[in-house]
Amino acid sequence: MQPDAANAPSRRLARVAGHLNPQMKEEGGAPALRPAACRAKGGAPGFKVAILGAAGGIGQPLSLLMKTNPLVSVLHLYDVVNTPGVTADISHMDTTAVVRGFLGAQQLDAALTGMDLVIIPAGLPRKPGMTRDDLFNKNAGIVRMLCEGVARCCPNAIVNLISNPVNSTVPIAAEVFKKAGTYNPKRLLGVTTLDVVRANTFVAEVLGVDPRDVSVPVVGGHAGVTILPLLSQVTPPSSFTQEEIKYLTNRIQNGGTEVVEAKAGAGSATLSMAFAAAKFGDACLRAMRGEAGIVECSYVASEVTELPFFASKVRLGRSGAEEILPLGPLNDFERVGLEAAKKELSESIQKGIAFMNK
Ligand SMILES: NC(=O)C1=CN([C@@H]2O[C@H](COP(=O)(O)OP(=O)(O)OC[C@H]3O[C@@H](n4cnc5c(N)ncnc54)[C@H](O)[C@@H]3O)[C@@H](O)[C@H]2O)C=CC1
Ligand SMILES: O=C([O-])CC(=O)C(=O)O
After folding, report:
1. Which residues, including other chains, have CB under 8 Å from residue 41's CB and lie 6 or more apart?
2. Which CATH number fits domain 43-191: 3.40.50.720, 3.30.1060.10, 3.40.190.10, 3.30.830.10?
3. Fold for the domain defined by 192-357
4. How many CB atoms lie within 10 A of CB 39?
5. Which residue among 19, 76, 92, 222 is the active-site one?
6. Of the candidates 44, 81, 246, 250, which lies 20 to 30 Å from 87 by C-alpha distance?
7. Distance, CA 295 to ligand 1 centroid (Å)?
8. How far is residue 263's CA from residue 260's CA, in Å, rounded to a whole number?
9. Which of 14-18, 317-321, 347-351 has the lowest mean pLDDT?
10. ipTM metric
């Protein structure tokens, strides 16, 4: 080898070094790679996904799981703390997605620009003794600010909203998008997948079968009595005693509280939630790619009941929630549950809308 050649900077290394994110370095963070220059070689281009609240209890394992998703080509990790470390760590995983970190409000727009899917687990979690609604005062403002960013920078992105109280934060997000003139109800999806994941698990335990073979529709909303599992519609078709129905309904409705109490002040469900959000995010991406027949439960703008938002089965497509499926036949127990769910949901929806219009 010529001495000159040995001393010349490697073109390949220069390419990587040249793509350090100077903003992250200025703020004392670890360097990150610019996505545009670092597209996966050979594979399909994939989707650009942002996670807002990526350094949190849900955000970190969710970032890890989305980094393993082959449909993701670029993964933007945004938070107001700790993204340099999380980004450096996750970026070393030898999977396709290129990871880039963004820290603090001044980098929100850069995090969101060009995104196809935005997943939002930012906000405070519950402690024992709190309801999800007790999080409203803190999380409403966070969701508003982040959704204003979505409206500015990626108005056509599909949004998966996790931050609690979901029953109110989804209406808040809808109002933000309406005010910005970017609202498309198909693109705003409240994540209730954890309720379905729990329902599948608990029902499978009772039936003594593999939870992967069980599918329980869970409708209504995402808090207490608004979480309404439709055990009469479980697949494969299964019958339950009245005692089993009461036990399962109660356990599914209070699954979040079960975890909050077990964690005894250290937060709420994070790992199972990350699993559920990754599952739902993957379903959205597959639908956006054109895969047909993808049906998931989600809390969306809806005409299934008289309420403006309701969780039910939705058919996902290229543009998000393309069809809201009807509830199907309910038994007497479920009809009573539906009335209780609607009463509480109505108040939570109004609270969200009022927050945006005060
Ligand atoms: N939809 C659902 O099924 C579930 C929802 N949740 C909700 O998800 C939320 C997050 O829970 P955890 O991850 O356990 O909380 P966490 O406190 O561990 O993480 C939240 C993260 O959000 C970040 N954050 C705060 N303000 C922000 C802002 N303005 N912009 C960007 N990031 C910001 C924090 O810095 C933190 O890293 C909570 O509201 C919780 O109630 C939790 C479990 C299930
Ligand atoms: O219970 C909480 O506060 C978190 C949550 O939404 C859940 O685990 O379902």
Report:
1. none
2. 3.40.50.720
3. L-2-Hydroxyisocaproate Dehydrogenase; Chain A, domain 2 (3.90.110)
4. 14
5. 222
6. 44
7. 26
8. 5
9. 14-18
10. 0.99
Q: What is the DSSP letter of 9?
A: P
Reported confidence tier of residue 358, pLDDT bands at 50, 70, 90: confident
The two three-digit tokens of residue 299, written as one number:
């809390």
Give the integer Cα–Cα distance in Å for 301 and 286. 21
| End-to-end CA gap in the chain | 72
Spatial distance between the Cα atoms of 159 and 148, rounded to a whole number of angstroms: 12
Half-sphere exposure of 242 (CA within 13 A, CB side): 2
Question: Is 293 labelled a binding residue?
Answer: no
pTM: predicted TM-score of the whole model, two decimal places: 0.93
Which residues are 98's β-sheet partners? 74
User: Identity (one letter) of the amino acid at 196?
Assistant: V
Residue 245 CA to ligand 1 centre (angstroms) = 32
Unique residue bearing structure tokens 């309701």: 310
**Residue 79, marked binder:** yes
Cα(146)–Cα(167) distance, integer angstroms = 17
The residue whose C-alpha atom lies closest to atom 20 belonging to ligand 1 is 56
Sequence-ordered list of residues with C-beta below 8 angstroms from that of 262, at least 6 positions apart, any chain:
none
Distance CA 334, CA 326 (A): 15
Grouping H, G, I as helix, E, B as strand and the rest as coil, residue 78 is strand
**Which of the listed residues 77, 124, 133, 260 should we mutate to test ligand 1's pocket, taking the one with most ligand atoms within 8 A of CB?**
124
Which of 51, 52, 58 for mutating ligand 1's site (highest number of atoms within 8 Å of CB)? 58
